Amino acid sequence: MRYRLPAGGRIDRSKPLSFHFDGKKYSGFAGDTLASALIANGAHLVGRSFKYHRPRGIMSAGADEPNALVGVGSEEARYTPNLRATQIELYNGLVAESQNRWPSLSLDFSGANDLFSRFLPAGFYYKTFMWPASAWKKLYEPMIRRAAGLGRAPEAADADRYTQVYGHCDVLVVGAGPAGLAAALAAARSGVKVFVCDEQDQMGGSLLSEREATIDGQGAADWLAQTIRELKSRTNVVLLRRTTAFGWYPHNFLGLCERVTDHLGLAITKQPRERMWQVRAREVVLATGAIERPLVFPDNDRPGIMMAEAARTYLNRYGVLPGSRAVVFTACDSAYRAALELKSAGVEIAAIADVRSAPNGRWMERARAAGIDVRPSTVIAGTYGRLRISHADLARISGGTMGHPETFACDLLLMSAGFTPSVHLFSQSRGKLVYDEDLKAYLPGTSVERERSVGACRGVFDLGASLADGFAGGLSAAKALGGTAAAEHKFSVFAQSLGRDGFIGAPPSGGKSRRTRAWVDFQNDVTAKDIELATREGFRSIEHVKRYTTTGMATDQGKTSNMNALGIVSQTLALPASQVGLTTFRPPYTPTTFGAFAGQSRGELFDPVRKTSIHEWARENGAVFEDVSLWKRAHYFPRPGEDMHAAVRRECKATRESVGIFDATTLGKIEVVGKDAAEFMNRMYTNAWTKLEPGRLRYGVMLREDGFVMDDGVVGRMSPDRFHVTTTTGGAARVLALMEDYLQTEWSDLDVWLTSTTEQWAVIAVQGPNARKVLEPLVHGIDISQQAMPHMSVQEGHICGVPTRLFRVSFTGELGFEVNVPMGYGRGVWEAIYAAGREFGITPYGTETMHVLRAEKGYIIVGQETDGTVTPDDVGLAWAIGKAKKDFVGKRSLARPAMSRSDRKQLVGLLTVDPNIVLEEGAQVVADPSEPVPMTMIGHVTSSYWSVALDRSIALALVQGGRARIGSRLSVPIPSGPVTVEVVQPIFYDPEGKRLDG
Amino acid sequence: MRRFSAISLFREALGGHETWPRQWRSPEPKPAYDVVIVGGGGHGLATAFYLAERYGLTNVAVVEKGWIGGGNTGRNTTIIRSNYLFDESARLYEHALKLWEGLSQQLNYNVMYSPRGVLMLAHNIHDVQSFKRHVHANRLNGIDNEWLSPQECKEFCPPLNVGGAMRYPILGGALQRRGGTARHDAVAWGYARAADARGVDILENCEVLGIRRAASGRVEGIETSRGFIRAGKIGVVAAGNTSVVMNMAGVRLPLESFPLQALVSEPVKPAFPCVVMSNTIHAYISQSDKGEMVIGAGTDAYTSYSQRGALHIATHTLDAICELVPMFRRLRMLRNWGGIVDVTPDRSPIVAKTPVPGLYVNCGWGTGGFKATPGSGDVFAWTIAKDDPHPINAPFTIERFRDGVMIDEAAAAAVAH
Amino acid sequence: MLLIKCPFCGPRPELEFSYGGQAHIARPKDPASLDDESWAEYLYIRSNPKGLHAERWRHIHGCARFFNVQRNTASDAIVATYKIGEEPPKPVDPGLEEWSSRSGAAL
Questions:
Q1: C-alpha angle with apex B119: B178 to A155, nearest 5 degrees?
Q2: What is the ipTM of this complex?
Q3: Interface test with A, best of B132, B168, B333, B401 (most A CBs within 10 A)
Q4: The domain containing residue B286 runs over which residues?
Q5: Whether the model pTM is above 0.80
């Protein structure tokens, strides 16, 4: 660690760490970032730029870093691309690699792009690669894609876990620099519940790099330690380190991402990797600080060119010298402070070039007193050095012309154009930004949410003022909550003012020649000339400039580039910067891991799984399940050696010939109760309910108000004021919601109560000629004889000692019952019925068999025969419409002209002329198979199965004017050729319904 | 219009790119135009282009309240496909797809139409049935769409989690190979440049404040932030803001505007070869030429013009993405934004005449308008030029809602059971 | 995620609610007496304003009740919530009222 100072900084020299970068072993200390450790080892070259593959070094010390992006991870399942070396906490064994280069970082063949850069200006790809047309897909695009992208995506599934938590607090303080900490102190002392979050591993912000300032008589580091002690000691404060507030959503709802384990490195931990906090804060104090701006000068992107404050951070926080001989280029005072501190640590300061014509005040005096060569009205006209800066040309400007450049040898160039307040979150909250001409920056204007900005993020830069501003902000937040605000505190601060100077855009330079380039967006390789070209071509809105040049669209989202781009547009168009405007700030503030958003929601936890109380029995008995909405339903019960078709044939045969048992629990169930229950049912369903006797069942059809079939199900009238309504499995919630909607908002005069009972009843369908024989011995207090309990009736009593609502109903066409028992008894009753059915060969069947059996009978399934564009008459359910009823939901819509046209698609049966062909569901029906494409399609197959009972295939279809076509032949063209079908009535088995009675 | 080509780029490079002309002018509004298009998005600019190119109307202005392409054109996930179920939709989107195939050459602007294939995933038996119905219908309509088994899905898109532990496993997919993506900004700029070259005035920063109608009811012109502009005909193509604009003419429409979010990851080297859509778990993903994973979410629950949505909507989509492609869990979201999508009751567009003479509307594209851009512009231009709908957009009237002739693609895929 | 004040339960996060569309559209008492245009207007025409919007929400994972909300659709700020049957606390934007009074539906 040649560039590590023997003492100083916040690193722990007692804990040396080793790490690898691009295969080479290095060492560092606990407390280092990857960037500080690399600089300590003299390694400045860390990456390649996006487009020209220019060698790039570490430019900053934080979230704004555009260049130093690396891939981290020694195992593929934990490999993460595009991380900023400036934010990666060093740990023992860390493995990092540079990106976007081949074969190596120092010798990157794509660096040739740089030689051709003049053929690759902004938007060049819109102007070429168009000939021949087919080459875009085959040649140009793959080439561009290979060249683009930064790091590589991991190739193995992520091995880590993520978690999420909701947080509620009175005051959320974002940023724990001096202003944020002062705000937290004030709010905490006022007794309100405070969250403080900061993206770094340590709280303190700029105080972590502070050398000479004192607060309340203590050094900055001591004040910081004491303040954090105080906050930690308060039970009303939660401190969240390594936690980035990345997004502001409506109504003071903020997304925070806490990085929990990355810094622990290879240590085995049970902790999740990241934790996403979703925080609802009554008040928010933004203390997000400011970001130092680069200067736009020719060849300003070489390794060794660094932000002045970043150099100061490396020196003071990490005890690292970023170089040995530095040139400084500045437009503000703070770089002088950096130069002085670096000089006192042993870095030679070759010169300070100050773009200002008359820099004044104490900082320049101090620099000159320290023997530094300070040159006002001076710019950098060029730099040299391939993999690291070696020289810089300084030139004096006077009266708009540039003097002869003077060359200085250096291995470090510090730059500062002033500070850009971090207004990202404020802007996301939809607060309006106001341009400050003095500061050359946008500042928070009026808040829209319950928010206040404090400190550097609203242009209050000096330490004392920032502390006072933060404290006042914290107090005012506490007051706004109606709390008793803590006592005022006046900070006594010794720190020399840094002034408010700044510069945006491109300073005058010798860079007018065609060859020189001055970078604005370093990562995306956007130069001042690109921006000028965009404006020349008519891209004048700042959003157009951004999109055409891609400035501000890199992974730093323009943190260092946006204001300079705006400045250049303003210079080029001779418009005030305030009229150029700013591109919109969007979440996230810094890139945020997908896994953190997904949290626990993975695998089985992706969505809740609903299982019936009979589910485990089905699983134990070999059922294959299908997903139907959230439910798992038994699809079929294969025996060893059976595929689905074989199993379904066996299940169908057993049910038709003896008895089958089916878990129908997933059907939605709603209890409709009240003196007006029948009237309510009349209004919700197409059917008439008034005359339905208690103890009887009826098949009900529900429409949407637009007249299309929405749901269906069997409804039992349990008593004059009580209906047991069933719905489709997927439609239960929709149906209840629609019922509640009408009941609460249209017909609140009706005395009706609705209760979802889906989870209350297990439903066991027992179907087949022997169904009654199976159930008879098990029921108590119910006469299930044909005389006492005809088809479509319901009785209450007991089965196996358990209360039941026993439905005599059939969705198979056979004699059938549906046994409703309280959910917890479902499996017990099922097993009892199964045991009783043994002597009849009772066979469990799944949804596939259920579908076949009902299709043989022509019973529709909503969602299969219907698709949201189907009326009751279309599917042969006109009989279910209560003709005498004046109104019901959807009735008026059925009277619209298109709803009763004779060429509507109607439900019919299809029989293939070759009985062995089973049509594919969804296949289209045509009248003339010889018509060339595009063909006239007159319908489609909705259901299609092999029917064991008929020993042939069957299908249901919706066909235009279908009922009038019964008896005729149509065609179903499939890829292998047309299949001729006969149109028949949509009922294939037992059309007289004799089997319903066994 | 200076022709774009490798040669012109080379020549300009030698001269430092100093003499590239403006891609479109920034004229002052003329007092009157034959046609004014309200809305400078892809559809509006395409309409103006085809009015000039195909229907000989060059005294045309496009008025845009902000910057062209700044609405849904510049905010969408750029998926292009035409494998729609119903004949009406299939014809409309296929017309557009055919235009996409030659658009870069027609506009002399590389819109980067990239037929990478659009794979729509099925996660349950109902999805399988629904997609197979699409495949059959598309084949007979002459539109490519094929069914892939789970294994074939994996071969076509290797990063997919096929066969892994998933709550809703991939049971197959419908693939349209001609489907893909295009560069959204280039579509707006390309149409703008080509329309401008044919005489169309593109008026940015020109917000419509009112629509003036004569006593006869016919439109007379528009009041704008840049003054009154007389117009023989007005075509409103204002996407999410259509209700607001049409209200100015006293026309209320069956429309609601919802937030629709999208997001991108940081760029990475090529890792995802095609477009994958999953309506069942709400995930839409492709990789841009730049390397970003471009991801679309579902709409928010409530109507809004705020151009942002809720965190839980974006989160829900990333749940699904991380399930579909578990190695992307460590990628990071770079940027998340919202657009305003105008949705009709059957979620199909309205491209039609209105009850007001001289006023035409093109709206209701919901979450899928980008893919239709060229076709929408062409048939809308026809409709305006001839005061009569093109056969392709004839079914997409306002009156279909009154009559009950819905074109409901979404309901046709709705899940029940 | 919006923070919505249920008139029965107090402020709760949006996840507890379901959105119910534009408020104050009463179902016609006698739908059969309406012509197709008027019926279509009831079914489909929505004001969809950019600005103050009266809308229905249901506290589905709470008290399960419907109520009304006035929200600014330009900013998503909620201006008021009130029970079904109550008058809107704020008059709708006068500009919007003017539109709706002078405009006929397009159907």
A1: 115
A2: 0.97
A3: B333
A4: 118-177+256-343
A5: yes
